[in-house]
């Protein structure tokens, strides 16, 4: 969810690039390596880790909320019987529910993380507490939910991601069944990693503009007011390229992260399912 990158420029100096494509008033752009070099030269190596604290705090509850909601919604829809079991519609509705709940619950954490990354002060870095106090003083609790609309629109990314992932996963499971194997090996989890990487790449490329809109809405004292107004302003001032600034960095950050996450998720589900089945068999035998 968050890369160890901060914004790479001052408002009247240079195009700022982070994983969400932040911009200033000038049209100059930089590559990932140029951005990293610029941050180190102007803000020091510590600036590469701005927002790391909130990121570490937010990752665990965010993933837990997301996957638990996704699994519960998926199981509920499959048990109700009004839609085809494990159909794309089930995956879409499950991903939408999970994205909505996770975004709503954890938006303040990611808001603080982004604000810290946008802190350009190279001498005195703003602490998490100072950031929270500053945001609260400016707009109260509601201020921590600025950009939440963009997050809701970003749910379409998770929907596309899980529909493609579940489709690839079903094909992989068909091949495994043809091999008449009931147990999963390291090969299966490597395949799940590839499925996660492919699905996330496609989803990110399709829905990336919402990342740009969300980050710009979270900038302090900016000209962006709403989701659609932000997209329109970026399109008008920077063209189509502006809506995809930082996409390369986003992919570098998200693809390995998602690949590992999906394989870990499948491994945990597999282990827990086997343990549950073994306990059920022991009870039945008794």
From TrEMBL:
Under the heading Gene3D superfamilies, the entry gives: Mitochondrial carrier domain (1.50.40.10)
Which PROSITE patterns is this protein grouped with? SOLCAR (PS50920)
On the tree of life, the source organism's domain of life is: Eukaryota
Q: Where in the cell is it found?
A: Mitochondrion inner membrane
Keyword set, alphabetical order: Membrane, Mitochondrion, Mitochondrion inner membrane, Repeat, Transmembrane, Transmembrane helix, Transport
Q: Which InterPro entries match?
A: MCP (IPR002067), MCP_dom_sf (IPR023395), MCP_transmembrane (IPR018108), SLC25A33/36-like (IPR049562)
Q: How does it sit in the membrane?
A: Multi-pass membrane protein
User: According to the record, where are the Solcar repeats?
Assistant: 1-76, 86-171, 187-271
Q: Which PANTHER family does this chain map to?
A: MITOCHONDRIAL CARRIER PROTEIN RIM2
The family classification in the record reads: Belongs to the mitochondrial carrier (TC 2.A.29) family.
Q: What is this protein called?
A: Solute carrier family 25 member 36 isoform X3
Q: What organism does this protein naturally occur in?
A: Drosophila arizonae
Q: Gene behind this chain?
A: LOC108610443
């Amino acid at each position: 969810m968050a890369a160890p990158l901060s914004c790479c420029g001052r408002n009247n100096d240079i195009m700022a690039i982070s994983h969400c494509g932040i911009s200033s008033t000038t049209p100059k752009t930089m590559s990932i390596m140029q951005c990293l070099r610029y941050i180190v030269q102007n803000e020091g190596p510590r600036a590469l880790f701005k927002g790391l604290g909130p990121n570490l705090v937010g990752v665990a509850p965010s993933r837990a909320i997301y996957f638990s909601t996704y699994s519960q919604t998926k199981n509920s829809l499959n048990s109700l019987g009004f839609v085809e079991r494990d159909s794309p519609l089930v995956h879409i509705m499950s991903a939408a529910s999970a994205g909505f709940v996770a975004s709503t619950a954890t938006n303040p954490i990611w808001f603080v993380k982004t604000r810290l990354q946008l802190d350009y002060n190279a001498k005195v870095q703003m602490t998490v507490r100072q950031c929270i106090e500053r945001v609260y003083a400016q707009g109260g609790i509601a201020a921590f939910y600025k950009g939440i609309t963009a997050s809701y629109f970003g749910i379409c990314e998770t929907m596309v991601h899980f529909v493609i992932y579940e489709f690839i996963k079903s094909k992989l499971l068909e091949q495994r069944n043809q091999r008449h194997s009931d147990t999963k090996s390291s090969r299966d989890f490597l395949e799940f990693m590839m499925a996660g990487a492919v699905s996330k790449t496609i989803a990110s490329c399709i829905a990336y503009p919402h990342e740009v809109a969300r980050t710009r809405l979270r900038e302090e004292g900016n000209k962006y007011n709403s989701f659609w107004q932000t997209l329109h302003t970026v399109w008008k001032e920077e063209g189509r390229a502006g809506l995809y600034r930082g996409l390369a960095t986003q992919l570098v950050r998200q693809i390995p992260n998602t690949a590992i996450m999906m394989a870990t998720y499948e491994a945990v589900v597999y282990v827990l399912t086997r343990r549950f089945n073994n306990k059920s068999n022991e009870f039945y035998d008794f």
